[in-house]
Design brief:
By secondary structure, the protein is α+β, with helices and mostly antiparallel strands. The protein has helices at residues 100-108, 135-150, 155-175, 197-206, 213-219, 224-235, 239-257, 262-268, 274-285, 289-298, and strands spanning 8-12, 22-25, 31-32, 39-43, 46-51, 55-60, 63-68, 72-75, 81-85, 91-98, 128-129. It folds into two domains: 8-175, Regulatory protein AraC (Jelly Rolls), CATH 2.60.120; 197-298, Orthogonal Bundle (Arc Repressor Mutant, subunit A), CATH 1.10.10.60. The strands form three sheets. Strands 2, 3, 5, 8, 10 and 11 form a six-stranded antiparallel sheet that branches. It has a three-stranded antiparallel sheet with strand order 7-6-9, with no helix packed on it. Strands 1-4 form a two-stranded parallel sheet.
């Protein structure tokens, strides 16, 4: 008997703008084909999707779930999934990517500096929220998209307020512990749960702390050797390289948005010596932190993004 084909999982990295960490993807570019991709993918930020037209299916952790126009999807970071439309249809979507932690911190400052308002486990059927059952979520998500598209005066402040309301509404829904898009749990175990998710979460939240490969492997209940192999298979890079990339990306944000010294920034992002920071920065960026900061501040053409990991593109 032939073995089941192993799914290909892609990592798609988005760097959010520094001073307004919200990204909108919308327009005709985001019509989804009716051809089912053989690849699953996942992101490094929370994804909120709005289906504007037609219908289709999402594959999430071994489940195939139907969607229709008016549905809102909530996909936590590091959750593998793919989307395809019904036969002879091309559903139109808008996608919002953001970091809830950054949203709360930028909106409330020190009051939320130690708060990480995280959604409870969101999996499978609970990822799809229908407009009929959750009209408030649909209205808020649509309002955010409109603000980001139209960019009227004070649109960022308005989008922040709407996103906060949307996220709080999601917290309420997912804290209710009730099915939200289907009456039953899956009748079979979830097959495509990302084995390295615990390590990715820790790197995302605690990149500035000392982290060892053995510790990350232990979080995933894998041997160190198996963890290294699995991590490289999924992410296309070694765990330590991914950790350092995360640290350097955060360093770029601080270099551009603060006047902190390079030594201070290197320590804030988790490097224990300025020499190792400079060496890693030059390897990934191609120039020293001092040179990059000078160019970033002088060049109007350099956006407020700090993109280190390559975006692999949509299938």
């Amino acid at each position: 008997m032939a073995r089941a084909k192993k799914p290909v999982i892609e990592y798609r990295h988005y760097s959010l703008p520094i001073h307004f960490p919200v990204l909108l993807l919308s327009g005709e570019r985001w019509r989804i084909s009716d051809i089912k991709s053989e690849h699953l993918h996942f992101h490094n930020h929370l994804e909120i999707g709005i289906c504007h037209s037609d219908s289709g299916f999402m594959q999430i952790e071994g489940e195939t779930l139907p969607f229709q126009a008016g549905d809102v999807t909530c996909l936590p970071r590091y959750l593998p999934h793919t989307t395809y439309s019904s036969p002879e249809e091309a559903s139109l979507w808008s996608y919002i990517f953001f970091s809830p932690e950054e949203l709360f911190q930028q909106s409330f400052g020190g009051a939320y500096s130690n708060v990480e308002p995280r959604l409870p486990a969101v999996k499978g059927t609970s990822c799809i929220l229908s407009r009929d059952k959750h009209p408030k979520i649909y209205l808020l998500a649509t309002a955010v998209v409109n603000e980001l598209k139209e960019q009227q005066p004070y649109y960022q402040e308005s989008a922040y307020g709407l996103l906060l309301s949307l996220y709080i509404e999601l917290l309420r829904v997912y804290s209710g512990n009730e099915p939200v898009a289907g009456e039953q749990e899956a009748e079979y175990p979830l097959k495509n749960t990302l084995a390295i998710s615990p390590a990715l979460e820790v790197i995302t939240q605690h990149y500035m702390s000392p982290l060892t490969i053995d510790e990350l492997a232990g979080l995933c209940h894998l041997s160190t050797t198996h963890f290294r192999r699995k991590f490289h298979e999924i992410m296309g890079t070694a765990p330590l390289d991914f950790l350092n990339s995360t640290r350097i990306e955060e360093a770029c944000k601080l270099l551009k948005s603060t006047e902190d010294t390079i030594l201070s920034i290197s320590e804030q992002v988790g490097f224990h010596s300025i020499s190792s920071f400079n060496r890693c920065f030059a390897k990934l960026i191609g120039e020293s932190p001092k040179e990059w900061r000078k160019g970033a501040l002088q060049s109007a053409s350099q956006s407020a993004k700090a993109s280190i990991l390559e975006f692999t593109g949509w299938v």
